[in-house]
Amino acid sequence: MKMIFVTQQLDAAHPTLGAAEGMVRALAARVDELVVFASSTAGDLPSNVRARSYAAPAQALRGARFELELARELARGRPAALLAHMSPIYALLAAPLLRPLGVPVLLWFTQQRGGANLGRAARVVDAILTVDSRSVPLASPKVRAIGHGIETGLFTCAERPQREGLRLLSLGRYSEVKGHDVAIRALPALRGSELTVCGEEATPNDAHVRARLDALVRELGLGERVHLLDAVPRGEVPRLFADADVVVNATHGASADKVVLEALAACVPVVAASPVFDGLLPPELRFVDGDPAGLASAVRAAAGLSTAERQILRARVEAEHSVDHWADSVLAAVRR
């Protein structure tokens, strides 16, 4: 059985796309051959994984290069399916070549904004796989919720040290949608607590958002309690969790941020606003989107979770959102 996996970059250290590497390994363990299409790859891959690059200096050229490389791969043999990771455009480009051959085209997508390409892709793909039906901004019978693909083995549980005040952690791009400002505004109500934000500046607007957050910190007189840091390589995330008492996720809308599940896998309690987590997080760990007071109240409840309660949440993540569960679900979708 041969499958094709398409992603933008394959690099375990990438702060945003690093999780794709674990997905590749999980799929590779279940098929005879996995062909990864990416603009670039880094690190060692399993022996049954081949990489094809579609790198080019411009978007249109990348699309043309992708179609050329896909045609060359099809000449080597028909795949069982193609899975496009987070990029509807590659499902769109692949469909004209694969549909005549009866090859299923699948899309993995978990963003709140899909753009026109998502709607177009929905018409040509066989299924849109996602965490929760609400984590795709599209109503379609092709949407199938299969849980996230978390490498739970990367995260271990450790007892939190006794100290005054709480260490809060918020991970995610310096984008408006991430709601870092809500976490900052909640901090005055959490006496003695500190907040660390680690985020990527992926666009010029992200730099503007970070500057506004810095101004908000100064306005509220929180300069010694809020730390606005750069993104860290994905391999450093477990270290951040080990030093945190509570992870804060104030992302607006129906977000399925994987950091929520990764933190729970490390037995770190999480507070979140997204309705996607209403079946996982107890009510006291959730708050109304954009509400600093509600966030502060949820943080106090999270800090009081017992070790047993934290381990129960980890077990839920292992059962419903592990990368192995994800890969099994992808292959089940292929068979359907």
Describe this structure as you would to a colleague:
- The chain is α/β, with parallel strands linked by helices and 336 residues long.
- The protein folds into two domains: 2-145, Rossmann fold; 153-318, Glycogen Phosphorylase B (Rossmann fold, 3-Layer(aba) Sandwich).
- The chain has eleven helices and 14 strands.
- The protein has helices at 19-28, 59-75, 88-98, 115-124, 180-186, 204-219, 237-242, 258-265, 292-303, 307-321, 323-335; strands at 2-6, 9-10, 33-38, 40-41, 49-53, 81-85, 105-108, 127-130, 143-145, 167-171, 194-199, 226-230, 246-249, 270-272.
- The strands form three sheets. A seven-stranded parallel beta sheet has the order 5-3-1-6-7-8-9, sandwiched between helices. Strands 12-11-10-13-14 form a five-stranded parallel beta sheet, sandwiched between helices.
- Helix 8 packs across helix 10.
- The longest helix has 17 residues, at 59-75.
Write the layout of secondary structure elements.
Layout: E1 2-6, E2 9-10, H1 19-28, E3 33-38, E4 40-41, E5 49-53, H2 59-75, E6 81-85, H3 88-98, E7 105-108, H4 115-124, E8 127-130, E9 143-145, E10 167-171, H5 180-186, E11 194-199, H6 204-219, E12 226-230, H7 237-242, E13 246-249, H8 258-265, E14 270-272, H9 292-303, H10 307-321, H11 323-335
Parallel strand pairs: 1-3, 1-6, 2-4, 3-5, 6-7, 7-8, 8-9, 10-11, 10-13, 11-12, 13-14
